[in-house]
Amino acid sequence: GQAKTTYKRVLLKISGEALMGDQGYGLHPPTVQRIAKEVKSVHDMGVEICMVIGGGNIFRGLQGSAQGMERTTADYMGMLATVMNALAMQSALEELDIHTRVISAIPMDQVCEPYIRRRAVRHLEKKRVCIFAAGTGNPYFTTDTAATLRANEMSCEAIFMGKQVDGVYDKDPKKHDDAVRYGQITYDEVLQQHLGVMDASAIALARDNNLPIIVFSLDEPGGFRGILAGEGTYTRVHG
Ligand code: UDP
């Protein structure tokens, strides 16, 4: 269809787990391809797209450190996991003829580009999808914080959190039939009620810069495009 959007530049954050399908671990190529198609349908609307993908489908720093690994080393392993996910997404997008750059917070020139803000902005202006990898490049952070940081740096109008549920609920909708979805909610309410939107430091960074967070379901085919066109159900987190 001819769906239109008022958005010019957005950041899509997905967890690593969104890429593992039903496998319980790692990458499930058909799932990566399905999400790439969702991204393409938004790219086709002329929207400039940033992406941040987590690494939890491969490795989480906290898990490693719980098993006796040094925390910072474990976190670097987590960051490397996000690079693998970013490369998988790049490959799936390029299969759909979408020009893509993987941009890593930790330089690894043979694999992808280093993060240089002005260069990334230029890629976006040329309608290349920028996948920001390796989180913030620092241990003790998460890819939610990386997503908020990059969305601010790239002047995105909002962060779109692609989840397996269509918004923020007062309790887990997979466990409680009477869970109620919020249409909108403030950053402070999310923090006070410990709602699982993002980790607290990421929410605070979004709040301090007035960056709206849109929580929506990526399981809904055409959902991402629909939300950008103002349709469908989602929760908007704002000031
Ligand atoms: N990580 C990190 N610094 C960052 C981003 C990520 O140390 O700026 C590490 C951290 O160990 C984390 C792992 O990378 O557990 C994977 O990222 P995350 O847990 O955010 O992935 P998701 O839950 O979104 O799949």
Bound molecules: uridine-5'-diphosphate
Helix content: 25-40%
Low-confidence stretches: none
Oligomeric state of the chains? single chain
Question: CATH H level: which superfamily?
Answer: Acetylglutamate kinase-like
Radius of gyration: 17 Å
Distance between the termini: 33 Å
The gross shape turns out to be globular
Instruction: State mean pLDDT (0 to 100 scale).
Output: 96
Strand order of the largest sheet: 4-3-5-2-1-6-8-9-7
Number of strands: 9
Per CATH, the class reads Alpha Beta
> What's the main sheet like?
9 strands, mixed
Order of helical and strand elements: EHEHHEEHEHEEHHEHE
What is the beta-strand fraction?
Answer: 15-25%
So how many helices? Answer: 8
User: How many structural domains?
Assistant: 1
CATH architecture: 3-Layer(aba) Sandwich
What does the model show?
By secondary structure, this protein is α/β, with parallel strands linked by helices. It has one domain: Carbamate kinase. It has 8 helices and 9 strands. Strands 4-3-5-2-1-6-8-9-7 form a 9-stranded mixed sheet, with helices on both faces. β1, α1 and β2 form a beta-alpha-beta unit. The chain is globular. The chain starts with 8 loop residues before the first strand and ends with a strand. It binds uridine-5'-diphosphate. Uridine-5'-diphosphate binds next to α2, α3 and α5.
Concise structural overview:
The chain has 239 residues and is of the alpha/beta class. It has eight helices and nine strands. The protein has a single domain, classed as Acetylglutamate kinase-like (Carbamate kinase, 3-Layer(aba) Sandwich), CATH 3.40.1160.
